[in-house]
Design goal:
By secondary structure, the chain is an all-alpha fold. The protein contains 4 helices and no strands.
């Protein structure tokens, strides 16, 4: 099995985005206004573009598709650069639980916690 490069992954993602764009265009041709009234708001929700969070690898394909809805689609060099930046990010602590902790679901013993269900 060969290893896939970031360049090849970017090309695959752009190919998928172009196929999805063709489906969106077909729907727009059959029902005018579909793209702006139904599709775009749902895609913005899926891409978490309005949330105040850092961009993740899971949001990246939806963000690419949003870029294709504009006048200028994404360029391969920029997609490669974005992918490399996303792949270089360290996983967040919430995504990777600490293996040293015996019970990840046990309540925290932090006194300054904002948990209102614990007694003082």
């Amino acid at each position: 099995m060969s290893n896939i490069t970031t360049q090849q992954l970017a090309e695959i993602l752009l190919g998928i985005v172009r196929a999805q764009q063709a489906i969106i265009d077909a729907l727009e041709n059959s029902k005018a206004g579909f793209k702006s009234t139904h599709f775009r708001p749902m895609l913005e929700t899926a891409s978490r573009i309005r949330s105040n969070r850092t961009e993740t690898l899971a949001d990246f394909p939806a963000r690419l598709l949003l870029q294709t809805l504009g006048r200028n689609g994404p360029e391969l060099s920029q997609v490669v650069a974005d992918l490399e930046a996303l792949l270089a990010q360290q996983p967040s602590p919430a995504a990777a639980p600490d293996p040293a902790s015996a019970n990840a679901y046990a309540p925290a013993a932090d006194v300054a916690s904002l948990d209102m269900t614990q007694l003082p």
